[in-house]
């Protein structure tokens, strides 16, 4: 393909092949576990393609635009997975996959990035800018505040508990408004405005074409992924909560997760933290509320009601990442603590 290196062309070809094979398995009556595995690989590949093209587009306008675009378009597979899960009546998987995306990025990926980044420093301390981590903490606290209020209302059985959907819609609108007030100035502050193509990147028309095909492919593969998910859960003997919190969350963010850890290993601490934090902010304050509003058009609408154990996990996560990143420095010890928290959460979900 014009403007791409041989390696990039080969990877995109492999992604196309995996996507085609996943489609064949979906409609050929193949074993559910095999179909699920291929759909997972295809989703990860499409996420890479979207991320690669987004970086090429966003690099013309500065790092802030690049980071937000990567997070927004990188979450396309998860957006479709949740919609198809809701359409199939898999509400638990839908909710826990959103929650899992937040928790996996904020605990597992951030923890691993900190461990890798801190270990390469002579003094064992990974240092980064505090602006984005603090902004992300504010957005996550707001989302958590709404979810905690809904949970307390349901637990007490007060009059508001009969209007969870209405409260969720109001909360979703508020979250999107606040997110917009944050992201617009953030984008403006980081815009380079040079309009030049990044070195080694594809031409703009090629990048836009990859974005379009990758987004469309994500919609189809997400449907195949969800179709095979139910039988796979049954065969593996795991709970729906574990599937959503761990399997779907990690699969849907595989490329971003890997990229953040690699950047931390290279010593690019700010970029590594930016990828993780942008993803957390995107899911909590943009993707989740957007799905609440969009799901009103389907049979199983989404709301902010979660089981008490996951409300506690979300609140604990918000406090933990704020404490770890507020000073712009983190150690292996702090990274290990975040990873350990996610492992314990995964074990709890396994027995749900």
Chart the SSEs and their pairings.
Elements: H1 6-27, H2 32-58, H3 63-74, H4 76-87, H5 91-119, E1 125-127, H6 131-156, H7 164-189, H8 204-236, H9 240-252, H10 254-265, H11 269-294, H12 308-325, E2 329-331, H13 332-350
Antiparallel strand pairs: 1-2
Briefly say what this structure is.
Helices cover 78% and strands 2% of the residues. It has helices at residues 6-27, 32-58, 63-74, 76-87, 91-119, 131-156, 164-189, 204-236, 240-252, 254-265, 269-294, 308-325, 332-350; strands spanning 125-127, 329-331. A two-stranded antiparallel sheet has the order 1-2.
Overview of this protein structure:
With 352 residues, the chain is an all-alpha fold. The protein has helices at residues 6-27, 32-58, 63-74, 76-87, 91-119, 131-156, 164-189, 204-236, 240-252, 254-265, 269-294, 308-325, 332-350; strands at 125-127, 329-331. The chain has a two-stranded antiparallel ribbon.
């Amino acid at each position: 393909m014009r403007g791409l290196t041989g390696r990039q062309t080969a990877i995109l070809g492999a992604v196309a092949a995996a996507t085609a094979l996943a489609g064949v398995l979906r409609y050929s009556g193949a074993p559910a576990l095999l179909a699920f595995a291929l759909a997972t690989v295809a989703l990860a590949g499409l996420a890479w393609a979207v991320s690669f093209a987004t970086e090429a587009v966003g690099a013309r306008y500065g790092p802030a635009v690049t980071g937000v675009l990567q997070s927004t378009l990188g979450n396309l597979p998860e957006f479709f997975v949740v919609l198809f899960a809701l359409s199939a009546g898999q509400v638990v998987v839908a909710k826990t996959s959103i929650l899992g995306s937040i928790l996996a990025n904020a605990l597992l990926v951030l923890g691993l990035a900190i461990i890798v980044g801190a270990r390469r420093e002579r003094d064992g301390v990974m240092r980064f800018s505090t602006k984005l981590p603090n902004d992300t903490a504010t957005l996550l606290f707001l989302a958590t505040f709404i979810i905690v209020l809904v949970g307390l209302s349901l637990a007490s059985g007060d009059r508001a508990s009969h209007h969870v959907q209405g409260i969720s819609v109001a909360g979703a609108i508020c979250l999107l408004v606040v997110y917009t007030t944050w992201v617009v100035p953030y984008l403006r502050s980081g815009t380079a405005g040079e309009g030049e193509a990044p070195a080694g990147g594809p031409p703009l028309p090629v990048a836009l074409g990859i974005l379009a095909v990758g987004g469309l492919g994500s919609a189809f593969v997400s449907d195949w992924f969800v179709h095979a998910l139910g039988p796979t859960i049954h065969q593996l003997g795991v709970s729906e909560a574990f599937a959503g919190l761990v399997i779907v969350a990690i699969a849907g963010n595989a490329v971003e997760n890997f990229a953040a850890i690699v950047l931390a290993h290279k010593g690019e601490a700010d970029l590594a933290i930016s990828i993780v934090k942008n993803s957390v902010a995107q899911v909590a304050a943009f993707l989740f509320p957007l799905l609440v509003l969009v799901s009103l058009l389907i049979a199983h609408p989404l709301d902010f009601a979660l089981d008490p154990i996951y409300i506690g996990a979300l609140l604990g996560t918000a406090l933990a990442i704020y404490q770890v990143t507020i000073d712009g420095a983190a150690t292996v010890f702090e990274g290990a603590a975040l990873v350990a928290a996610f492992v314990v959460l995964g074990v709890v979900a396994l027995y749900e």
